[in-house]
Amino acid sequence: MGISKFEGRYDRNFNTLSLEEQKILGASKVVVIGLGGLGGGVCEMLARVGVGHLTLIDGDSFEASNLNRQLLSEEHLIDVPKAQAAKDRVNAINSEVIVKHLVEYVDESNLHERIKNADVVMDCLDAIDTRFMLQKAAQKASIPIISGAIAGVAGQVTTIFPGDKGYELIYGKKREKQSKGVETRTGNIAYCALFVAALQSSECLKVLLNRGDVLRNKLLIAELWTNTFDIMDLV
Known about the structure:
By secondary structure, this protein is of the alpha/beta class. The chain has one domain (11-233): Rossmann fold, CATH 3.40.50.720. Helix content is 35%, strand content 19%.
């Protein structure tokens, strides 16, 4: 994908990005796994900034409880697969983005195949055990992961490169099958989901463009009631 046929589409990306960097984004391939509060915001932002190839994966469909925070959810889309809604949204934003959508859940049987051609994988999952499966597949495929998680008005972001310990430094050693994260107890608020999705999208561009300070072996933690923002070293 070259610079857009829609004159002026990327004008406001310049001078933050160079023309060459915009072309790099246009040729980049990103997989987004999980298309809820985080993934919906991530695919929206990556499509707008001009990432040229998006693979969007989620086996779930929208329900009423998603309407409080999930950017892609709308009342008329209840029971519609999230992956289909994500594809339609990206196509509406930027018709030049090449989109593949998969209505399926990921596990050890399909993860490597789904991500093996990507430049970056966006972890927008809500189950810790699936994150460990993703890291194993990404290590095998030599692909970096940008991971986000939210609970209430708190969130975290980290970037995991092949060879890093990654989730082990956050969650400890892999355990037996785990339940969904703490957000099932705390709830999630819309602005926190989009805030963390924005941080993930920023990390994605930095990795793709090899520019800026990346949260490798670091965990950014934000708590929005108190406006507390910390970056922890994980090693």
